[in-house]
TrEMBL record:
The keyword Glycosyltransferase applies. Belongs to the glycogen phosphorylase family. GO terms for molecular function: 1,4-alpha-oligoglucan phosphorylase activity. Its cofactor is pyridoxal 5'-phosphate. Keywords: Carbohydrate metabolism, Glycosyltransferase, Pyridoxal phosphate, Transferase. The lineage of its organism: Bacteria, Bacillati, Bacillota, Clostridia, Eubacteriales. Its EC number is 2.4.1.1. It is an enzyme of class 2 (transferase). NCBIfam families: P_ylase (TIGR02093). This is Alpha-1,4 glucan phosphorylase. The keyword Glycosyltransferase applies. CDD domains: GT35_Glycogen_Phosphorylase. Gene3D superfamilies: Glycogen Phosphorylase B. Allosteric enzyme that catalyzes the rate-limiting step in glycogen catabolism, the phosphorolytic cleavage of glycogen to produce glucose-1-phosphate, and plays a central role in maintaining cellular and organismal glucose homeostasis.
């Protein structure tokens, strides 16, 4: 990498006729990116050739939330510091890249997990390449106006993108009923750390086969002249902004089929170049991981493509089944995809036909196994004009896995119960993970240096289990060093929040942070209620020893999710109240940061003291934010849910703040008949807090009891025609949550003891590396090679 600056100089000259120091930030970004791509070209080609010579795996995902690439790529190449110094010599601050947009081609957990897995596979030398969609507009940018969320389109490619190479020569066509489009691949290099291995993320962009209709143009039909172009480009125009909610729209189905078909054609092309028309090696050489149900039409599409090669249905199905495996990421009914059969027939009739063949095959197989009619009915892939994608994936794949221990148990006992009874050998657990390169090395160099000093080398970068060595050196001096680093990160975050959101916060206060997508099941509203409870208690003089606390929220709501948007407004109203009340303004501060994204997260997770993970037990499949916070020494204030349970297992429950109903409690409450209204009426403190939604304390635009806050109140206390009252058990969990929060606040005053807990968390975070997770996938599901560290 020694001549990277020379390459940069040449690139700057040839692209812009400028010297390095004359480039604008986006020009520098493009030039340096191109220079880096030139530098890694040989290693990339060698890795591709190696992958092609062995059994390999593909990660099919509609989302890859990659974040900002520049710093991460330089970091993984081990040249970040050198480049920083060399740029400085030219008078350029490397922080200019802070102005470059994130590649936000994902909504949240699932998309970020896909990005961490690519990163880990590259580092762990797993021959895994990603396939996805090159959305023109990624996840919307969020502005907060008058406390409300406002969405703005994310035009992330407007200054071009140096990390993707367009591969026009490998374009394929994809056909829908009445429409055929071109799928053009863009390849992104995924750079491993302490290895020469480089993997590939191939993203498909939809384009028209005929861009312009001159006939129509000559007839002055200008719209029709570009109609084919627009119709094609619309397919990959925008990422659907829903997290944990399925949207049964034609365009969404087109997106899914588009990238599945293009990716499979690509794999087939490569395969045929090796083996011609002999498909007997296909499943031996290729494994495809389906990231949630979004890519599940890959199964019938692979069957279709193989049948086009002359195979019969049964042979083709056997190959597809041996090739594919499915990861489930949610138990929420509204997120499990169920396509209307009519819609499928309208868009991809051939695929629908093959799904029906698969569905019939399943019923025959179940009959042969002697399964009862009742159970067979519950397992139907096509039922009442609806295609159940999770069922299709479970049947037509080798494995199905959940993403945390509890979640996998829930799949087995509940969501996919019948399937587990018939095919128990297919079920696996693969607890999620995060990459320590981005989420510690890059975002917290100060803590990384301390860890390197204590562990004796920086090998934790490729083997996070080495963190356990820290357990032996948690002494007073190390705790002080840790606390000093945390303080520095808190100061940095305060400066950043001031710059981005114009709010001043006190770095000496506790940072209690909840950042994630806004969803009722994640219960940001519970956090808001707890703050209001504490606010009233402080005003009544009931919390004399309260340590000042800054509550930081960051969350995007799906644009069509009215309740989530109401909760954002409610939090902002609380901020207005407590931040300006003379009785509380020095003790409580509430900040809703705008446009929470990967880059903001990098600054937030490092500065947190408390990590809020408050989902209703059983509903957060895993969570990965919880792991990022833990790795940076924040203590989890959370429920017995998802990976929180494993975090507490690893670090010891005494080193976290775990509270509230467990899955068993929720089940019991449901059976007994949970009555939130009774609890609310019996507890004046709860009533006072919940009633701030309707008693005029806050303003949701002068709606006076008729607006979105009143709707929230009604949903909690009375329920609606479609949902029972307090569906997510806020009122049940509120009292214990408040007490746990107050206990954490008290504990924080003992800085040594609290710091010790933080270090114990870091020392026991090794399990949560995505390197561990990806090697488990490689060993247990894909049966590919991997690096032995
Ligand atoms: O909600 C889950 C989250 O708990 C999990 O950590 C993440 C990655 O496995 O997936 C999320 N699910 C989705 O985004 C949609 O199913």
């Amino acid at each position: 990498m020694s001549n990277i600056m020379e390459k940069l100089e040449l690139t700057a000259q040839s692209m812009y006729c400028k010297k390095i120091e004359e480039l604008t930030p986006s020009e520098l970004h493009l030039s340096l990116g191109k220079a880096v791509m030139g530098e890694i070209a040989d290693n990339w080609a060698a890795s591709k050739a190696k992958h092609n010579s062995e059994r390999r795996a593909y990660y099919f995902s509609a989302e890859f939330l990659m974040g900002r690439m520049m710093y991460n790529n330089l970091y993984c190449l081990g040249i970040l510091d050198d480049v920083k110094k060399m740029l400085k010599k030219k008078g350029v601050d490397i922080n200019v890249f802070e102005d470059i947009d994130d590649a936000a081609l994902g909504n949240g957990g699932l998309g970020r997990l896909a990005a961490c897995y690519l990163d880990s596979a590259a580092t762990m030398e797993v021959p895994l390449d990603g396939y996805g969609i090159r959305y023109k507009y990624g996840l919307f940018k969020q502005l907060i106006k008058d406390g409300y969320q406002v969405e703005v389109a994310d035009d992330w490619q407007r200054f071009d993108d140096p990390w993707c190479l367009r591969r026009e020569d490998e374009a394929v066509t994809v056909s829908f009923k009445g429409q055929t489009v071109k799928a053009v691949p863009y390849d992104m290099a995924v750079i491993g750390c302490k290895t020469t291995n480089i993997n590939t993320l191939r993203l498909w962009q939809a384009e028209a086969i005929n861009e312009f209709d001159f006939q129509a143009f000559n007839n002055t039909e200008y719209n029709r002249a570009v109609q084919e172009k627009n119709d094609a480009e619309n397919i990959t125009k925008v990422l659907y902004p829903n997290d944990n909610k399925y949207e049964g729209k034609v365009l969404r189905l087109k997106q899914q089929y588009f990238f599945c078909s293009a990716s499979l054609q690509d794999i087939m092309r490569r395969y045929k170049a090796k083996h011609g028309n002999d498909f007997s090696f296909f499943a031996k050489e290729n494994a495809i991981q389906l990231n949630d149900t979004h890519p599940v039409c890959s199964i019938p599409e692979l069957v279709r493509l193989l049948m086009n090669e002359g195979m019969n249905f049964d042979e083709a199905f056997e190959i597809a089944r041996k090739t594919c495996a499915y990861t489930n990421h949610t138990v929420l009914g509204e997120a499990l995809e169920k396509w209307h059969a009519d819609l499928m027939m309208q868009v991809i009739p051939e695929i629908y036909h093959i799904i029906c063949l698969i569905a019939n095959k399943l019923q025959e197989e179940l009959t042969a196994k002697g399964i009862s009619e009742d159970m067979k009915a519950k397992m139907r892939i096509v039922d009442a004009n609806t295609v159940h994608m999770a069922r299709l994936a479970t049947y037509a794949g080798t494995y199905v896995n959940g993403v945390a221990k509890l979640h996998t148990e829930i799949l087995k006992d509940d969501v996919l119960k019948e399937w587990y009874q018939v095919y128990p050998e297919r079920f696996q657990n693969k607890t999620n993970g995060i990459t320590q390169r981005r989420w510690l090395g890059l975002c917290n160099p100060e803590l990384a240096a301390l860890i390197t000093e204590k562990v004796g080398s920086d090998n934790w970068l490729i083997d996070l289990s080495l963190l356990s060595k820290l357990n032996d050196c948690i002494d007073a001096k190390t705790i002080t060093k840790f606390n000093t680093i945390k303080k520095k990160k808190k100061v940095q975050l305060a400066e950043y929040i001031k710059k981005m959101d114009g709010v001043e916060i006190n770095p000496d206060s506790i940072y209690d942070i909840q950042v994630k997508r806004l969803h009722e099941y994640k219960r940001q509203l519970l956090n808001a209620f707890s703050i209001m409870t504490i606010y009233f208690r402080i005003k009544e003089g009931k919390l004399p020893n309260w340590t000042p606390t800054t509550f930081i929220f960051g969350a995007k709501a799906a644009p069509g999710y009215a309740r989530a948007k109401a909760i954002i407004k409610y939090i902002n109203e609380i901020a207005d109240l407590v931040n300006n009340d003379p009785d509380t303004k020095d003790k409580l501060k509430v900040v809703f940061i705008s446009n929470y994204n990967v880059s903001y997260a990098e600054k937030i997770v490092v500065a947190a003291d408390l990590s809020e993970q408050t989902s209703t037990a059983g509903l957060e499949a895993s969570g990965t934010g919880n792991m990022k916070f833990m790795l940076n020494g924040a203590l989890t204030l959370g429920t017995y849910d998802g990976a929180n349970i494993e975090i507490a297992e690893c670090a010891g429950e005494e080193n976290e703040y775990i509270f509230g109903a467990r899955v068993e409690d929720i089940e019991r409450l449901k059976k007994e008949g949970y009555d939130p209204k009774k609890l609310y009426e019996a507890n004046p403190e709860i009533k006072k807090v919940v009633d701030t939604l309707i008693d005029g304390t806050f303003d949701d635009d002068g709606a006076q009891g008729e607006g979105s806050f009143a709707e929230l109140h009604n949903a909690l206390i009375n329920g609606t025609s479609w949902q029972e009252a307090d569906h997510y058990f806020h009122i049940y969990d509120l009292p214990l949550y408040v007490e746990t929060k107050i206990r954490a606040n008290k504990d924080y005053a003992n800085r040594k003891e609290f710091g010790k807990k933080c270090l114990i968390n870091i020392a026991n975070a090794g399990k949560f590396s995505s390197d561990r997770a990806i090697v488990e996938y490689a060993k247990d599901i894909w049966h590919t090679s991997y690096r032995k560290v």
